[in-house]
Amino acid sequence: MAAGCAEPRAMIEAILRAQWLSMRSFRLDSRRRGAIFSLITAAVWYGFWTFLALMAEEFASSVNTSEALRRGLPAGLFFVFLYWQFAPIVSASFGASLDLKKLLAYPVPHRSLFFIEILLRITTCAEMLLILAGSLVGLFRNPLYGGFRATPRLAAPYFVFVLFNLLLSAGLRSLLERMLTHRCLREILMLALATGAAVPQLLLVSRAPIGPWWRRFAESPAALWPWGAVSELVLGVSVVAPAGALCCWTAAAWVFGRWQFERSLRHDAQAAASARAGANGRGRWWMDAMYRIPSIFLPDPVAVMVEKELRSLSRTPRFRLVFIMGFSFGLVVWLPIVMGRGSSVLADNFLTVVSVYALTLLGQVSYLNAFGFDRASAQVYFSMPVSVGKSLAAKNLAATFFILFEMLAVTAACLVVHIAIAPAKIVEAFAVTAIVGSYLLGIGNLSSVHFPRAMNPERVSQGGAASRLQALIFVFYPLALLPVFLAFWARYVFNSNVIFYLILTFAAVLGAVFYWIAMESAVRAATRRREKILMELSRGEGPVATE
Asked: What pLDDT shows up at residue 486?
């Protein structure tokens, strides 16, 4: 019996050790350079959630808020559930997961793989664990609910609630990853998610009565939902009914998660994609004509490389997903700005705000990591008789084409939802986005050669930027927006369009100079760091695929 238990544990340790070695290989030197930025970003992000956890702890520990706690705890746990399950879906970043294709060849029991997958779900929403820990510590300190002597009664429901969320998120991830391998279904799903995400904001802006709906899910009947059952258990309202409901929900989540995990084990995404590609490859003459547009204006070999980028990116599931999110979810995020608030600076420049947001979103799968999807084949750019500068320029031109197309889609989406935008504001939005794009493309060229990262085009849930690059963008992104922000600030303060256009023109000239300097620096760095770049892009993934 002991040997049977030790064997799966040894397999799990071997998988985790292989993942650690794959993460450590080839990246030690580059990670040292970006460690400080990663620490700053992590400190700011988790510092914010730690502050919220301390507030939750203070609220739960006060003896004067017992009635508010009875009403607020189910609502807080309901928020934790929503964030845990839907925040990774909306951001298209599902955290770490097992790369099943690399593990099926080994005699590892499926239950062991599923156990690891459950543990990896912690990476999606560690913030919620902080919130739960804060509220639990507050309940320990509150003498009205037993204090530390009631640790088993307080900790057990929280533990089961965490297990319920882990199991459900694992099942949802497996289900969504299979659905996102279907091209048409992937686009429809993202539009549906964007529409669903808009509902709460639209209800708040329109001031529709949401009290009955909120009470239905967060308050009564409390024992019907897992968050309500946890509240009744820890507050001592009742035991039998909420305990039974919580166990039933957790058992259902386990069945759902294990079922979806087993289906993902049998799913062959590559075979399904190749079959669909053969069926959909005919009758697309208009797309071929669009791909050949650069050859009309550009000389070879730049025109050929731009066409290659257009074809490859448009067929990449991850890029298509982010592109759709730019004009769908991006519109939803900023929609409350123009609804019910009359005239304001943000409302008057709504199209500009959404366009810059879409530009930023595209960066992770295009210009910020230009060689990511090329992976090992990026050595072609360093071996063919064409300068690396022309290769980067071709990738920038392809990214510019998609940025322009994204802006057209954003403008069309605004018109579809009947957002009144003056023609002058449309021209202004295109100009501002182009200026901001010149700065971001320059930063992207530098990041592509200093922080390259191989990306799997088939993994729609994998981010395009390494954590150290994300930390670097966190620091330099405000600097890229500063010249344009100064132009809008000057127009607001001096109420003069002349000053606005003068500063905007200066920002455009400065952006062109910055792009040229960044390009020269990137070319020199690419020549100097050629071997390191190719080694990093050729690096294979471990058994655990990370974001």
From this structure: 92
- 57 and 137 belong to one structural domain: yes
Which positions ≥6 away from 434 have C-beta within 8 Å? 508
Strands 544-545 and 97-98: what pairing? antiparallel
CB atoms within 10 A of CB 192: 11
Average of per-residue pLDDT across 162-190? 79
Helices 467-494 & 497-528 angle (0-180, nearest 10): 160
Q: What is the band of 18 on the pLDDT scale with cuts at 50, 70, 90?
A: low
- Bin 541: left if φ > 0, else alpha if -120 < ψ < 50, else beta: beta
Q: Distance between CA 328 and CA 76 in Å, rounded?
A: 28
Tokens for 493, please give them.
């303060």
Q: Is residue 441 in some structural domain?
A: yes
The reply to whether omega before 301 is within 30° of 0 (cis) is: yes
Residues 66 and 152 in one domain: yes
* Domain ranges, residue 436: 285-541
Q: What is the DSSP string of 388-443?
A: HHHHHHHHHHHHHHHHHHHHHHHHHHHHHTT----HHHHHHHHHHHHHHHHHHHHH
Q: Is residue 2 part of a domain?
A: no
* Token pair listed for 499: 């000053």
Helix, strand and coil percent figures for the chain, each rounded to 5:
80, 0, 20
CA 48 to chain centre: 18
Q: For residue 181, how far is the Cα from the chain centroid?
A: 17
Which pLDDT value is given to residue 514?
94
Does this model's pTM top 0.70? My answer is: no
Q: Read off φ and ψ for residue 451, nearest 5 degrees.
A: -130, 55
Write the CB contacts of 53 (distance below 8 Å, at least 6 apart in sequence). Answer: 130, 131, 133, 134, 135
Assign 536 to helix, strand or coil: helix
Do residues 232 and 135 both lie within one domain? Answer: yes
Whole-angstrom CA distances from 392 to 14, 297, 302, 304, 468 are 40, 18, 10, 13, 21
Q: Please give the Cα distance from 262 to 268 (Å, whole number).
A: 12
Domain end call among 225, 250, 274: 274
Domain membership flag for residue 41: yes
| Tens-place pLDDT, residues 313-342 | 888 877 887 888 777 777 777 776 666 555
Backbone angles phi, psi at 282, to 5 degrees: -100, 150
Q: Is residue 151 part of a domain?
A: yes
In whole angstroms, give the CA distance from residue 426 to residue 76: 41
Q: How many domains does the chain have?
A: 2
Point out the domain boundary residue: 244, 274, 304.
274
